[in-house]
Amino acid sequence: MTPPPKKCLLSINKMKISDYIISFLVQEKINFLFEICGGVTTHLLDSIYLQKKLSAVSTHHEQAAAMAAEGYARINRKMGVAMATSGPGATNLITGIGSCFFDSVPALFITGQVNTYEFKLDKPVRQVGFQETKIVQIVKPLMKYAVRVTNPHKIRYHLEKAVYLAHSGRPGPVLLDLPMNIQRQEIKPSVLEAFPIPQNPQSEFKIKTSTYKTIIKLLKNSHRPVILVGGGVRTAGAESELVKLIKKIQVPVVTSLMGIDALSHDSPLHVGMIGTYGNRYANLAVANADFLLVLGSRLDTRQTGTKPKTFARAAKIIHVDVDPQELDNKVKTYLAIQADLKDFLIALNENLANDKIDKFKPWLDQISIYKKRYPSFVTKNMGQINPNDLMNRLSSYLPTDGVVSVDVGQNQMWAAQSLKIGSKQRFLTQGGMAALGSALPMAIGASFANPHRTIVVIAGDGGFQFSLQELETIKHYNLPIKIILLNNHCYGMVKQFQEQYFAGRFQSTVLGYSAPDFVKVAKAFGLKAFKISRSQQIEIALGELFNDKQSQLLEIDLSSSCQTWPKLSVDQPIENQDPLLPKKELQSNMLIPLVNSV
């Protein structure tokens, strides 16, 4: 909930709107705003310059500014803010905006706009003002709130409403489009219209005590329960309540990609990530479950497979989410509950009282068998580097409070499968939008959010080329960001898809693809950089990378034949990942009947 501006702001007799906006952000405890300068944001830039409590971070592309705001918001649970000029500046923000929308990240986007007297309005022309673009109409499908401010006396209302909506219910992005003549207009803060905070905020859901009793009864009657943790647990700040719950009920926990860091991987109840590229043992656990409690996960196709009817088909599924549209959407459930996850877990723990359920040891033993049969990595000390082995070995070098920012592609899946994340560590990656090149700018935002933490970027050679200009941002601000670049000389994930479904016709993944000498590129930006290609070099290289506090790039030379396994093919249940197990072996792992098509 956003409180009204403090008296210090309301007591000022007159001030320029751009000054009011920046002062408002300061009162919201926003320390950094990510931006690229433009002609119609100059009043806002000048307002930043004239005060000392909020700093502009100048990135080298507006998309990077948007993604840095995303990383900033996700690492410190404050709202991220990004700003761009009209036209191309505003449209370049859209990919980052989409990521905040799909992954429920609170962020405010500010765009400059041409003067109101330059609007095309209903004139039958394409444009009147230079770079005039209707950004509000363009981004509305990806926004919780987007408005062009044309009445200067409504600025307080729009700011307060935008910030409230960004944080309330399922969080997400908001946008204010500010014409230049509105920015420079003077107003009297004390007479501005305020946004009335709703008396019954969306987060207050009424759940009957009998609902909790039903869940507990189902749990106690089950033999093979599983909890599936999604990104909503982190978004709701419910991690400690989750830990309390699993200590009481001793139920194994699997995660979605976005929920990977919600529970320490050191926990004996942590089983792994599920889905298309999930750990085989985690998928087997869900496939055999007879009770599944889903916390803050959309249950999208990458988790359930393309035939959702086969997903956890023997389980009574209880799905809890703050967004009612996600309930009973892709997977039909036994019980669908709209709730704030933190409030839900607090209440569930209270209803359990001092109960400690300790009857699932045979089930946990079975999952341990799965883990031993199908490990996520095999240690390889000589020869070519195995990516999963690399990720496992990287785990021991990460500082206890380190932040890993992972790009999209095979590198994302190798990290998700085999990296071990501790209770104070964070795993940042994009889920819904999944934009190549997102890891580096998100790491920049995370570094500004908490400059004392070590930030590690894991990226592939293809995605890294989408944002490598931000190496200059790292160098300019002297950010202690470590970059691990996995170079398999192609767009590996799509190449693997082409190999499976298109007879190895590698159009645009190999044919037409090229990359520069990344070590030379990094050095050209003034960063330290080096490269390894053999497994026996890993320990020395990681030691060198983390023993130096400065930013460095470590390029890992991989074979172009590296693939991501296991992987779920189309029309298969999640327990039947490639490379396929012999039918008898798969059957031996199943405690329920196989799907007929297997």
Give structural notes.
- With 598 residues, the protein is of the alpha/beta class.
- It has 3 domains: 7-191, Thiamin diphosphate (ThDP)-binding fold, Pyr/PP domains (Rossmann fold); 209-373, TPP-binding domain (Rossmann fold), CATH 3.40.50.1220; 387-557, Rossmann fold (3-Layer(aba) Sandwich).
- It is 36% helix and 16% strand.
- The chain has 25 helices and 20 strands.
- The strands form 4 sheets. A 6-stranded parallel beta sheet has the order 3-2-4-5-7-6, sandwiched between helices. Strands 11-10-9-12-13-14 form a 6-stranded parallel beta sheet, sandwiched between helices.
- Helix 13 (280-288) runs antiparallel to helix 16 and helix 17 packs across helix 18 (410-418).
- The relative contact order is 0.10.
- The model has no long low-confidence stretch (mean pLDDT 95).
Topology (SSEs and partners):
Elements: H1 7-10, E1 15-16, H2 17-27, E2 32-35, H3 42-49, E3 55-58, H4 62-76, E4 80-84, H5 88-91, H6 94-102, E5 107-113, H7 135-139, E6 145-148, H8 155-167, E7 173-179, H9 180-183, E8 186-187, H10 209-221, E9 225-229, H11 232-235, H12 239-249, E10 253-255, E11 270-273, H13 280-288, E12 291-295, H14 301-304, E13 316-321, E14 335-338, H15 341-352, H16 361-373, H17 387-395, E15 403-406, H18 410-418, E16 426-428, H19 439-449, E17 455-460, H20 461-464, H21 471-477, E18 481-487, H22 492-501, H23 518-524, E19 528-532, H24 538-547, E20 552-557, H25 583-589
Parallel strand pairs: 2-3, 2-4, 4-5, 5-7, 6-7, 9-10, 9-12, 10-11, 12-13, 13-14, 15-16, 15-17, 17-18, 18-20, 19-20
Antiparallel strand pairs: 1-8
